[in-house]
Amino acid sequence: MNAPIIKRPFDVAAIRAQFPILSRRVNDRPLIYLDNAASAQKPEAVIEAMSASMRGAYANVHRGLHTLANETTEAYEAARTSIARFLSAPSRESIAFTKSGTQAINIVAAGLDIKPGDEIVLSVMEHHSNIVPWHFLRERRGAVLKWLDIDDDGDIDLLKVDGLIGPRTKMVALTHMSNVLGARTPAAEVVRIAHAKGVPVLLDGCQAAVHGRVDVSALDVDFYACTGHKLYGPTGIGVLYGKPERLAALPPFEGGGEMIDVVERERVTYNEPPHRFEAGTPPILEAIGLGAAIEWINAQDRAAIEAHEAMLRDRAMNALRALNWVKLHGQQPNKGAIVAFSVDGAHPHDVAQILDRQGVAVRAGHHCAQPLMQRLGVTATARASFACYNTAEEVDHFIEALHKARKLLS
Ligand SMILES: *Cc1c(COP(=O)(O)O)cnc(C)c1O
C-alpha cells in the first residue's frame, strides 16, 4: 500500500526552505527571483533525486539485463507515469519525453502531412517555440499561417477562431497561457470549435501547466506540450502528450536507437509511441528529476499555491496600476502570475539592470514573442513572474526597487 500523501497547510517559509538557491545573495542583497516564467528554481527533492540516481542507481534504460539498467528503467518509466497522471492523460503511452517544450512542438509540426496551401491557425501571442516550427512548414512545404488576433488583455474572440478555421486548416496551435501577458485561453472551447470541423488542436502548456491544473482528457486536446524546467524540474526535459490515435499516426522525428522495431539494409520499421519519439539515449536523469518535481508538486496543496500566486499577482498588479509612469500589458482578471510592464521613458533592459543591482531578478526583452510585441506596439517589455516560493514582501521590495529605477532613469 502506498503511504498516504500528507498535504501540509500552505507555509511559504517552509516551501522556501526547500529551495537551496533562495538563500543566496545577489549584489549584496537577498535574492528576489521574479524570472520564473523563463525558468523556475529547483527544490531539494529534485536535486536529490538526480544526484541519488547518479550516485547509486544509474545505467542506460530499456533492454538492459542487469540490475542497474532495470532500476534506472523503472525510475524513468515511473516519471512517465507521474507526468501522465499530472496531465490526466488516458495512458502512460500517450506521454513522450522530449528535450524541451520546443522539441515537443517541433515533433508535431514536422510530422504533419502538409501540401502547399494547407493552413495552420495560431495566435499572435504565441512563444516563438509555437511559431517557428510552423514557419518551417510555410517555408518548406508552402503552408499558410493564419493569425488569430487578441485584445490588449490577451483575450481571443471565439467567433474569429471559428472564422479562421477552414477546409484547408491542418492544425490549430494555441498557447494555453501566454508567457508574457499571463492570459489564459479558452482552450476547451477552441478544441470544440476545431473538432466540429475535424481539425486537431495543439496546446502549448509550458506556462499553463505551472500555474494551474491541466486535464488533457477533459480538454479533449489532441497534443499538449510542456516543459520540465519551468515546473521546478531540470532543464533538458520536455513532454509531448498526444491522443493515442494521433501519436500512432505521427511519423518519427529523429532516427536512432530505441525508436525502431526492425532495421535491415533496405527496410526499417518503427517502434510504437511513445518510444518512436525518443530516439537515442533519452534524457534519463532529467526525466527522473522531472518525475521528482511532479511528485513534489503533488505533495503540496495546489489550491493553496494557486491562491498564493493569485495574491502575488494582484499585489504586484495593484501596486503597478497605481503608478502613472507604468503601463501594464495584459490585465485579464484571472491570469497567471506573470506581469509584463513598461516604464515611461525607460528601456526595459535598463530597468532590469537597475532592479538586478538591488537583488531583484526580472526579465526584459521580447520574451520570445516578437509578433506579440508588434501587436502591443513595443519592442520589449519588462516582466516579473512569480512562483509558489515568492512572498508578499518580495513584491513590495520589487515595487520599491522599481521606484529607485525610475528615479535613476528619468
Ligand atoms: C518556455 C516556453 C516554451 C519553450 O519551452 P522550452 O522547454 O524552454 O523549450 C514554449 N512556450 C511557452 C509558452 C513557454 O513559456
Explain what the structure shows.
This protein has 410 residues and is α/β, with parallel strands linked by helices. The protein folds into two domains: 135 residues, Aspartate Aminotransferase, domain 1; 250 residues, Aspartate Aminotransferase, domain 2, CATH 3.40.640.10. It is 39% helix and 17% strand. It contains 15 helices and 17 strands. The strands form five sheets. The protein has a seven-stranded mixed β-sheet, sandwiched between helices. Helix 4 runs parallel beside helix 5. The longest helix has 20 residues. The N and C termini lie far apart (63 Å). The mean pLDDT is 96. Bound molecules: pyridoxal-5'-phosphate. Pyridoxal-5'-phosphate (PLP) binds next to helix 4.
Topology:
Layout: H1 12-16, E1 25-26, E2 29-30, E3 32-33, H2 44-56, H3 67-86, E4 95-98, H4 101-111, E5 119-123, H5 132-141, E6 144-148, H6 158-164, E7 169-175, H7 187-196, E8 201-204, H8 208-211, H9 216-219, E9 223-227, E10 238-242, H10 244-249, E11 260-263, E12 268-270, H11 284-299, H12 302-321, E13 326-329, E14 338-343, H13 348-357, E15 360-361, E16 363-365, H14 370-376, E17 381-385, H15 392-409
Parallel strand pairs: 3-15, 5-6, 5-7, 7-8, 8-9
Antiparallel strand pairs: 1-2, 4-10, 9-10, 11-12, 13-14, 14-17, 16-17
The protein binds pyridoxal-5'-phosphate.
